[in-house]
Design a protein that fits this description.
By secondary structure, this protein is mostly helical. It has 29 helices and no strands. Helix 9 runs parallel beside helix 16 and helix 21 packs antiparallel against helix 22.
Length: 638
């Protein structure tokens, strides 16, 4: 290695050591604003010593050379196996790891909302049209054979996407390893694992989005280098765009790719076919946007509201807080980004000869990724939305690697050192997120960093404590901590319901009344109505239940509560009508069937009562009171 190259990689080792020192200090010293690398805060006290030892092994050539020798030996043994055996082993290893290391706390995103929508029969969600549709379609398919929950579908789908992604990378590597671009594959794979939330069962991870973007970049570079894989690249980009609209940040790079292709071929049909997948996906997106603007405009932001203000507001784009969040994001997704910034800017960019069009393509990707990261408004705040922002971050890392890492510049030991430290830093993220208590601790810690998105994030976290851990007091305390605009009708309705569950009836009534001016869905009116029924104040409950139905006429429970009110007022005709309306909206609501049967029984209509109680028992055969009514009706009909 020449002296200049030795100096270059000596500088690289210094950068790696500096990052390692940040990891070792950010956790034990509880440097909260370094949320992207303070993983050691959540690990046992011996973890810093283990990591420090691993850093020493990676910095010095002697022990690292021994590890490289062992790795090369295993690689030779693996390569000697048949292709089928290798593919089977890769599949088993990838799927197994993705299952073991999946993120288990879905409250870190809108997971429960997505699960709820899919279980209620939705097939369509505008921002992630294809991803959401596929989850819903798989859910419906498996429901034909077994009662699998939607959450299981999400986990299985993410593992499937991750495993297929690894297999495609492996096959692509096998087919192009004579090319310089093959040198990119290991670092890119590691950077993909840095955004590992994508494959570990995390519901808001857009399972297709992340791998589709990385495969688009790989296929495009290979086309520019070797003239192959243009069409698969276009298909991957179309999948990415339909998986999440934010993939549009890659559109300028695709335009450059098409211009390059149009200069190389004169066949009109070939030109059309090359661009067709992306054009079709863009047409679908435009159609979805027009449909939503026409039908749901009150729920949609204007185009400008999707971007951060430059200087004003609580979280401007050009603020110290925002750039600190971006630095954390880079260190979280691909910790060795600073190393590749150094290599790309100081050495590789001016010297390396790129295939025709590659340099401009990479600059376009870089510009799109930076624009997305700096100016697009993160809905929940940077520390919370890193699942979505992982994709442009990985694209940025991809470009830096492409500029910096070439076969002629980096020896096998230096490439191995980069992979070693990327895997070491990634293992810290895994150690935190593979443990549910550590995930919860980290989520609560991150929520305290900034007021941006704190209320909604707290709501999601509280939802997890309530529905997954059955820790109602903790969930209630989290909900109660939400203040200001975040204390909306949905939050107040949940607080009131939880207070009821804990026997705090008067507090629940007070909470529900607090939110009435904000209640546009009728949820709080329904809560008040149910509380008043519980307090035997039936006449006072009726206006609230009617208002709930007026505001939300498609909610079965509202009609059921109204039926209960009329039944207790001995207005059986009105009660039966309300219960039947509830059944129309939810044919599986056996409580409504039993209530209709009771109302008919009080009217002396034994046959009608029998029909509804029998239908209810088919759905819930364990209801002892219903069996007693059934036996009573049978005795009266003899």
């Amino acid at each position: 290695m020449k002296k200049s190259e030795r100096d270059r990689f000596q500088t690289g080792r210094i950068i790696i050591l500096a990052i390692a020192m940040l990891y070792l200090l950010a956790g034990p010293l509880h440097l909260e604003m370094l949320w992207g690398i303070n993983h050691l805060k959540y690990l046992p006290g011996y973890a810093p010593f283990v990591i420090a030892l691993a850093v020493v092994v990676g910095i010095f050539n002697g022990p690292l050379t021994s590890l490289l020798g062992a790795f090369q030996f295993l690689n030779r043994k693996f390569s000697s196996l048949s292709l089928r055996t290798r593919l089977i082993l890769v599949t088993v290893a990838a799927a197994g790891l993705f299952y073991l290391l999946r993120v288990k706390v879905h409250a870190l995103g809108d997971g429960y909302q997505r699960i709820y929508q899919i279980e209620r029969g939705y097939y369509f969600y505008p921002t992630e049209a294809l991803d959401f549709f596929l989850h819903a379609a798989f859910f419906r398919l498996f429901r034909l054979f077994t009662a699998v929950p939607a959450e299981t579908i999400y986990i299985a789908f993410s593992i499937l996407c991750g495993t297929v992604f690894i297999l495609l990378l492996y096959r692509l590597y096998s087919s192009i390893k004579s090319s310089d671009q093959a040198t990119l594959l290991l670092p890119i794979l590691l950077s993909a694992l840095g955004g590992s939330v994508l494959f570990f069962g995390y519901v808001e991870s857009y399972s297709l989005y992340y791998p589709a973007v990385l495969l688009y970049l790989l296929y495009s570079l290979h086309y520019l280098d070797r003239g192959r894989y243009l069409y698969p690249g276009a298909v991957c980009l179309s999948v990415a765009v339909l998986s999440h609209q934010s993939a549009l940040f890659l559109l300028p790079s695709f335009v450059l790719l098409m211009l390059h292709y149009h200069r190389k071929t004169t066949a009109p049909l070939s030109r059309l076919l090359a661009a067709a997948p992306v054009v079709i996906s863009l047409t679908i997106l435009i159609g979805i946007e027009i449909y939503n603007r026409l039908n749901y405009s009150e729920y949609l932001k204007s185009f400008g509201e999707n971007f951060l203000p430059l200087f004003s507001g609580e979280y401007p784009a050009l603020s110290l807080m925002h750039f600190l969040d971006l630095a954390n994001l880079l260190l979280l997704i691909f910790p060795l980004t600073p190393l590749f910034i150094h290599l790309a800017l100081r050495y590789a960019v001016p010297q390396v000869k790129f295939p025709d069009g590659s340099r401009w393509f990479l600059w376009a990707v870089l510009a799109g990724a930076l624009f997305f990261l700096i100016f697009v408004d993160p809905k929940l705040g940077m520390p919370r939305d890193w699942d979505l922002f992982a994709t442009p971050t990985a694209a940025l890392s991809f470009v830096l690697i492409a500029f910096a890492v070439r076969r002629s510049q980096m020896g096998s030991l230096e490439r191995f050192r980069v992979g070693y430290f990327a895997l070491l830093f990634f293992s810290l993220w895994v150690a935190v997120n593979a443990s549910e208590p550590r995930q919860l601790e980290r989520a609560e810690s991150v929520l305290k960093l900034s007021p941006k998105g704190q209320d909604y994030g707290t709501e999601l976290l509280a939802f997890h404590y309530r529905n997954k851990l059955n820790n109602s007091p903790k969930a209630l305390a989290l909900f109660q901590s939400i203040k200001g605009r975040g204390r909306n009708a949905r939050v107040l309705s949940t607080i009131a319901q939880m207070q009821l569950e804990l026997g705090q009836v008067n507090q629940a009534l007070s909470t529900a009344r607090e939110g009435l001016p904000l209640d546009s869905s009728g949820a709080l009116h329904a809560v008040i109505g149910s509380i008043l029924l519980r307090l035997d104040s039936v006449p006072s409950a009726l206006p609230h239940l009617m208002k709930a139905i007026e505001l939300s006429p498609q909610t079965a429970r509202n009609f059921y509560l109204l039926g209960q009110a009329y039944y207790r007022l001995e207005n059986d005709t009105a009660a039966i009508s309300a219960f039947k309306s509830s059944l129309t909206l939810d044919p599986s609501a056996f409580p409504a069937m039993f209530s209709i049967g009771q109302a008919y029984l009080r009217q002396g209509l034994l046959d009608s009562a029998y029909v509804y109680i029998e239908a209810g028992l088919k759905l819930n055969p364990k209801d002892q009171q219903a069996w007693e009514l059934m036996n009573f009706i049978r005795s009266q009909r003899r």
